[in-house]
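Hello forum,

I keep getting stuck at the same step: I have a sequence, I want structure tokens, and every attempt I make locally crashes halfway through. Rather than fight my setup again tonight, could one of you with a working pipeline run this one for me? It's a single chain of 147 residues.
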Amino acid sequence: MFKPGRDGNYTLKCNFNFDKFKIIMLEDRQTQTIQNLRIGQTYNFKALKTDVTNRFVLHFGSDLKHTDNEIPAKIYIDGSNLIINLLSVSMETEAFVYDIMGRKLLQQKLQGETQHTLNFKTGTQIIIIQLKNKQGSICRKLFCNNK
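Reply #2:
Ran it on my machine without issues. Output:
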């Protein structure tokens, strides 16, 4: 979350342990840019007091998790909504959402080449999202902090 105190130019500086994460990307949803923070650890941008507070998304992980059959989906939380971006996935994909204890919270078929917004009020917890289709699969763990 980022809320500027006044209109102006801002800089985000990232300091992290390079040994822990092979992939750290900063997505600015307002300008639709993605920056690799391993290459450039500062991000300069212009912000207005009226900008949405959830304009930034961090994507991080390890190269070891990446496989050739990982589908190119983006999964993130936006307030009380679970966003599943299948714009780069050409076929119908099945989505599963589990709580940390492994209980299935949701199972739904989602159309490819579409961004899906699912209202998902879970309270504060960690959820696991798995997407599967004939091309491959992807699994992500997200922290939800909505009430």
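Confidence is low (pLDDT under 50) at residues 63-67. If your local run keeps crashing, start a new thread with the error log.
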